[in-house]
Amino acid sequence: MYREEHDSVGKLNIPGEAYYGVNAQRAMDNFQITQMKLDPVLVESLIEIKKACALTNMELGELDPKVGEAILAVADEMLAGNLIGQMIVDPIQGGAGTSTNMNINEVIANRAIELLGGEKGDYDLVSPNDHVNKGQSTNDVYPSSGKLTILKLADMFLKTLEELAVSFEEKAQEFAHVKKMGRTQLSDAVPITLGAEFHAYYMVTKRNIKRLAAVRDEVRSLNMGGTAIGTGISAHEAFPVTVNKHLNELTGLNLEVAEDLVDGTQNIESFGVVADCLKTIGLSCSKIANDIRLLSSGPRTGFGEILIPARQNGSSIMPGKINPVIPEVVNQAAFLAAGNSVTVAMAVEGGQLELNAFEPVIFHKIIESFRVLDNSLMTFNTNCVKGIKANEERCRELLERSTYLTTALAAHIGYDEASTITKESLRDNKTVPQVAREHGVSEEILAAIME
């Protein structure tokens, strides 16, 4: 069974049971791009904005209280998880997000019509445009919903980073006594402790936490009430301040009204800053994952200085092979976030005059980066970092075999004698301590350079 709806393009049949309407149906027909659904946090943010707008319009005397209360009731239903499946448009769409905005408007309107005793599609009772979207435009609703989503996902990701930092700090303390050979450019350098290496991982993670916490301020400013291009046409003059008040009450996100609503509608470089921050976090974590892959390489022919948990078989042909699958997924998440940052940068640059039409791909890619980085670092922490063990015997073996111990030895016996010991160690395939003893170096000196 179908109902007939119309828009400026013409008439269209809509499934009778559907709460979405003609605008969402056309968007679904036009934009089978990712074949994915809108992120649930983005949908939640849209609902919160629609609820705050209804409260604002009622407070300002711009909306019939009977209609307003029905809109509020539907918003609460949706925030409880109902009707979410009626959000049918693809995340990537033409039209600067209009399809998404109209999808939520239509769902709220049609359910509100039911609550008021009408039948879906009877938009004289509750209109998606005139009532649900009153005082609004896609051009303030959509970017604001993206900003709310970023703030929520950032808070979620911060918890994951903080847990990872704790794990690195615990490993730094656990490995503080394990001395090993440090390396520069993959070549032996000078001694270091395994604990010092893990403390460095802790430090960069703490910096990433500070970066992400700071970048949230880039997206606290909303252009709600600016409507189409920031001039506020069709909205009550008190709409911006009033809707911001209600949004803060609903979300607790410490939101602000944009200082200049035209600027807040035209310019969206803040999203580029967010994407770059996520890229930086991903790249630094990928470097750590590379280190752990190298330090755990082996088990017989690699560095083998640490042991990471065996999570699954590593080969369909080599029996017993175990690969560093968890660090590898961190690498791939970082590659994705880096590529997404480029996409966002291009979309930020692509805006023209009073609007940027490419926010759909911006939000899709920023959300994807948040989700993939968060999930990859959770599994990295749980399934790898927490279970890392030091191979102390291997660390000491490689330390003793390294000729670069003679750098420390030279301070005690002189450069020329240390050079001679280096050459003999390489020639005879002996450890530096073995050759040093043959040259009469005392155990006290050897103990000093091995500490």
Automatic annotation (TrEMBL):
Keywords: Lyase
Keyword set includes Transcription regulation: no
Domain Fumarate lyase N-terminal, first and last residues per copy: 11-336
One protein family per Pfam: Lyase_1
EC number, as in UniProt: 4.3.1.1
InterPro entries on file: Aspartate_Ammonia-Lyase (IPR051546), Fumarase/histidase_N (IPR024083), Fumarase_C_C (IPR018951), Fumarate_lyase_CS (IPR020557), Fumarate_lyase_fam (IPR000362), Fumarate_lyase_N (IPR022761), L-Aspartase-like (IPR008948)
Enzyme class: lyase
Keyword Lyase belongs to the record: yes
NCBIfam families recorded: PRK12273.1 (NF008909)
Protein name per the record: Aspartate ammonia-lyase
Organism annotation: Vagococcus proximus
